[in-house]
Specification:
With 260 residues, the protein is of the alpha/beta class. Helix content is 40%, strand content 21%. Helix 1 packs across helix 10 and helix 7 packs antiparallel against helix 11 (226-237).
Length: 260
C-alpha cells in the first residue's frame, strides 16, 4: 500500500468524530492561512488534505470556489456534506489529479507531514497553482511552544519501540525545516507566521474520541491496546484539568509558510 492508501485507511475509521471534535480546534490556523492567501469571492482554492472540510467551509463562506482532496473517503464524505457546492474527491496529495495552473490558492493545513515525499508534494502544489498564486502550508510549531506535546510524549513513552530520533508529530516543526522544504521544491518563501490554537475538551471521553479518530493515534492504540492507552492519557491529561472538570490545553502554536 502507498502512503496515501495507508493514511486513508487510518483516518477513515471515525471521520465524524475527527470532524466534530478535534478538527474544529484548528480554526485559528485555517483563518490565518486563508487570510494570508487573500481568499475572497471568486478565488479558486484547493484544500489539499482537506479532512472533514473545516477550512473549506470558511473559504466557501467567503464565496471562494472550493476544491478539496483527501486520502480518506470518510473525510471526503463529511466535507462534501458540509460544502455541497464544492468539489471533493479521494486522492493523493503527492499526485494531484488536476491540470497545471488550475488554482489561485493552494492550502495544506496539517497534511504535508503525512506525505511520503514532501518535496514532491510541494512541487505538485506549485504545478497546480497559477503563476502569481499563493501556496500556504501549516503544521505544528516548535515543540516547546506546543502544550499538546505533553500528550505526544505520553504516547511515545508507552510505545514498545519509540519512533526514531527526529520522527513523530514534530518532524517538520524545527525552525527552518518547513522553509527548507519549500526552497527544495523551488518555492520562494514570502511570509512565515505563527498562530495559537487552544484545545478544549469538556471531558475525557470527548478527548479520547477526538484522538482515537486521528490516524497516527489509532495506529498506536492498535499496538498498545485501548485500555492501557486510556490509563496513560488520563494521567497525562490531569495537568490540563480546570475547575469544572474540563481540559484546556494552551498554548498550541502552529506555524504556517506562504509562497507566491
Amino acid at each position: 500500500m502507498g502512503t496515501a492508501d495507508v493514511q486513508g485507511e487510518l483516518w477513515g475509521k471515525a471521520p465524524e468524530d475527527w470532524a466534530s471534535i478535534q478538527e474544529p480546534m484548528h480554526r485559528p490556523l485555517w483563518e490565518a492561512m486563508i487570510d494570508i492567501a487573500q481568499v475572497s469571492s471568486g478565488t479558486q482554492m484547493l484544500d489539499a488534505g482537506c479532512g472533514g472540510g473545516g477550512a473549506s467551509v470558511l473559504a466557501a463562506g467567503r464565496k471562494a470556489e472550493v476544491v478539496g482532496i483527501d486520502a480518506a473517503a470518510g473525510m471526503i464524505k463529511v466535507a462534501q456534506e458540509r460544502v455541497p457546492e464544492g468539489d471533493f474527491r479521494v486522492g493523493d496529495i503527492e499526485n494531484l489529479p488536476y491540470d497545471d495552473h488550475e488554482f489561485d490558492v493552494v492550502i495544506a493545513a496539517n497534511s504535508l507531514q503525512y506525505a511520503g515525499d514532501r518535496v514532491k508534494t510541494l512541487q505538485e502544489f506549485k504545478r497546480v497553482c497559477r503563476p502569481g498564486g499563493r501556496i500556504v502550508v501549516g503544521l505544528f510549531g516548535s515543540p516547546e511552544k506546543v502544550s499538546f506535546g505533553t500528550i505526544f510524549a505520553a504516547v511515545r513513552d508507552v510505545l514498545p519501540e519509540p519512533p526514531p530520533d527526529g520522527a513523530g508529530p514534530f518532524e517538520l516543526s524545527a525552525d527552518g525545516k518547513l522553509g527548507s522544504l519549500f526552497l527544495a521544491a523551488g518555492l520562494p518563501i514570502i511570509q512565515e507566521e505563527e498562530v495559537d490554537c487552544p484545545f478544549h475538551y469538556p471531558d475525557f471521553t470527548t478527548f479520547w474520541r477526538g484522538q482515537y479518530a486521528a490516524g497516527p493515534f489509532r495506529r498506536v492504540v492498535e499496538t498498545v491496546g485501548e485500555g492501557k492507552m486510556q490509563v496513560v492519557l488520563q494521567k497525562a491529561m490531569e495537568v490540563f484539568r480546570v475547575d469544572n472538570g474540563a481540559y484546556h490545553i494552551q498554548p498550541n502554536i502552529f506555524r504556517y509558510v506562504m509562497s507566491a
